[in-house]
Amino acid sequence: MLFKQTRIGKNGRLFTIYKFRTIPAGKTQSNVWGSFLRKTKLDELPQIINIIKGEMTWVGPRPDIPGYADQLIGEDRIILTVKPGITGLASLKYRNEEGLLNQQLNPLQFNDEIIWPDKVRINKWYVKNKSFRLDCIIIFYTLIPLCFDVDAFCKKYN
Fold first, then answer.
1. What share of the chain is helix, strand, coil (3-state, %, to 5)?
2. Which structural domain range is residue 46 located in?
3. pTM of the model
4. Which residue(s) pair with 14 in the sheet?
5. Domains: count for the chain
6. What is the pLDDT of residues 4-60, one digit of tens each?
7. What single string gives the DSSP state of each residue in 9-30?
8. Cα–Cα distance for residue pair 73/24, rounded to 1 Å
């Protein structure tokens, strides 16, 4: 079953993103199958529809829900000059974002004050350094979940 949600795309345009539903309707927790889909990121596969529609690409900043990317100001808006991607550098760094948030006393505050600003920093770096080679590296580490230090990588190639 597909899950649809409004996200912010290139130039701040709203679009509908598709994912496999990982939490059964009326429930608050995923089942074994849903957990497997989320852990392996296979729940993202229906976003190929978004690629075909021209709303997304394979690699780029992940599209956010309204209230985040659409609120970017100044130089941070560079993130909105490219199509969002199924995977990206920030996705690699925060591969276990859900687990990290579950460890916090105030997950929303931690996201808003720590994770979100860091993702913006990483995504700005990506847009400024975007290349076919970089996209290949990101795809490789997405498909083969080896340890990859995003911050060290960005510093080395800055």
1. 55, 15, 30
2. 2-156
3. 0.90
4. 8
5. 1
6. 999 999 999 999 999 998 887 788 788 888 888 888 888 899 999 999 999 999 999
7. -GGG-EEEEEEE--S-TT-SS-
8. 36
